[in-house]
Amino acid sequence: MRRPIGPYADLTAPEKELFRRVIEAFTPQGVLWGPDFPSSREGGYIGQVQLGLTALSWLSDDERGWIMGGTAHKLWAMLQAPATG
């Protein structure tokens, strides 16, 4: 039997409601997914990213995209690779 990865793999209704309220209050453009890697080593980095995608599966692809990287990309634009060409 496969064990869920991390504390958010099997969210309860109140936990899902908490996520919904935070995202509603701050919008997906104001929320970042933080997997606490490497401290949360179970499943490795990819497992932690998959955990975020699973925990936020009720959002649209665009909303998930903001939370899983778009917001960080916007906040830390100076860390982006320079355009080539």
Number of strands: 0
Give me the number of helical elements. Answer: 3
Beta-strand percent range? under 5%
- Helical/strand content category: mainly alpha
Integer-rounded radius of gyration: 14 Å
Terminal Cα separation, in Å?
50 Å
* Main sheet properties: none
Topology order in helix (H) and strand (E) letters: HHH
> What sort of overall outline do the alpha carbons produce when their principal axes are compared?
globular
Name the average pLDDT: 80
Low-pLDDT runs of 5+ residues are: none
Considering DSSP H and I runs of 4 or more, what fraction of the residues is helical? Answer: 40-55%
Defining key terms:
mainly alpha, 48% helix, globular
Question: What does this molecule look like?
Answer:
This protein has a domain at 41-74. Helix content is 48%, strand content 0%. The protein has 3 helices and no strands. The protein has helices at 13-26, 44-55, 61-75.
Topology:
Layout: H1 13-26, H2 44-55, H3 61-75
Describe, in short, the structure shown:
With 85 residues, the protein is mostly helical.
